[in-house]
Design a protein that fits this description.
Layout: H1 4-27, H2 34-57, H3 63-85, H4 94-106, H5 114-127, H6 134-137, H7 146-154, H8 156-170, H9 176-182, H10 186-209, H11 218-252, H12 274-277, H13 283-292, H14 298-314, H15 322-325
Helix pairs in contact: 1-14, 2-3, 2-11, 3-4, 3-11, 7-8, 10-11, 13-14
Domain Fatty acid desaturase: 62-308
Pfam families: FA_desaturase
GO biological process, one term: lipid metabolic process
């Protein structure tokens, strides 16, 4: 619910964000080349992701370095996908648009396909804070159990399976197989690699600890070489990226009612969140801006976020409401003077 003061504040915030963007664009004419910028940033992301894998393959960089570089690259691709969902690039060129949609998916294999996610995300803007917001609920928003929340943040597929009956009861039109099929084939391969990796190395660890000699077949040793490589260059970077993003986004969105724009999100810019912010492109610091003005490229939000966040705070948007994270994202209303 929103009173007249809230409506006025929201109107002022939206106008201020748009004015900041206009000023930025007038000062930097190259920003008018939005299609080229979007495609260029996507190519930077894909090249960074691919280069990290190649450097690891040729033993130029260690596994941990490859994982970090690839995760940072994939975080850019996530922002590009978000912009594509809001038709920010190549709106009138379907061939390039769908090419970009495919590329952001292939380097982020643990997500549903972007065409399906488009509907989920637009629904998120309409139903944020309510049980119908499946996008946020899939990544842990509103979960009371901290153990279950941690599992969902790290393993979205297992979380989906565990909570499917609950979703069927609470979300209109929910169908498990619709969501599951939208993740094929990459999510299936992604989780197969994870569980094969964990099973193989777990069994070997137990055997080594127990002084048990295992006769591993040659074909399995050969397979594990590829699994280990895929784990480092494709799976682990996205596990890191998605876990950080899921933690940040599920923490900053409030849950439990149809909130107005001042109450849908909080801004997370506490220093303790910085390690997570690195791998989700500063999401907690900038995503609240997106709720006020959805049709805006992510790099614009980044540039104007410092000035806009000062206004958001002045208008009552919460900052670093850490208590809500431990209370199933409950929003505690604070009455403001007019």
């Amino acid at each position: 619910m929103q009173n007249n003061q809230d409506k006025q504040d929201i109107k002022e915030i939206v106008a201020y964000i748009k004015n900041q963007e206009r000023t930025l664009r007038s000062n930097h004419p190259f920003l008018a080349q939005q299609n080229a910028l979007g495609l260029g940033l996507l190519l930077v992301s894909v090249c960074g992701f691919t280069a990290a894998g190649c450097l690891y393959f040729y033993a130029v960089i260690p596994a941990w370095c490859c994982i970090i570089i690839a995760a940072l690259s994939a975080s850019i691709a996530h922002e590009i996908e978000h912009d594509l969902i809001h038709q920010q690039y190549f709106k009138s060129n379907s061939a390039v648009y769908h090419f970009m949609m495919f590329m952001v998916w292939i380097i982020r294999p643990n997500t549903v396909n972007p065409w399906y996610r488009k509907g989920m995300h637009l629904n998120h803007h309409k139903t944020s804070g309510t049980p119908q917001d499946i996008e946020e609920r899939l990544v842990g928003n509103g979960i009371k159990s901290h153990t279950l929340r941690l599992l969902v943040v790290c393993d979205g597929l297992l979380g989906l399976i565990i909570r499917s009956k609950q979703f069927s009861r609470e979300i209109k039109g929910y169908n498990f197989f619709n969501v599951f099929n939208a993740s094929l084939p990459f999510v299936t391969v992604y989780y197969l690699i994870i569980y094969i990796f964990l099973l193989f190395h777990g069994v070997n660890f137990i055997a080594d600890s127990s002084a048990v000699k295992l006769n591993t077949p040659v074909w399995l040793v050969s397979l594990m070489e590829w699994v280990n490589f895929a784990m480092v260059v494709w799976v682990a970077p996205n596990f890191l990226r998605s876990a950080c993003l899921n933690f940040i986004t599920s923490s900053m969105h409030y849950y439990g009612a149809r909130f107005n724009l001042l109450e849908q999100t909080q801004v997370l810019n506490h220093w303790a969140f910085m390690p997570f912010q690195w791998f989700c492109f500063n999401f907690g610091h900038t995503h609240s801006i997106h709720h006020f003005v959805p049709n805006q490229p992510f790099y614009i939000r980044q540039i104007i976020s410092k000035q806009v966040n000062l206004l958001l705070k002045n208008k009552g948007v919460k900052f670093n409401d850490l208590v809500s994270i431990f209370a199933a994202n409950h929003y505690k209303k604070i009455e403001r003077s007019s």
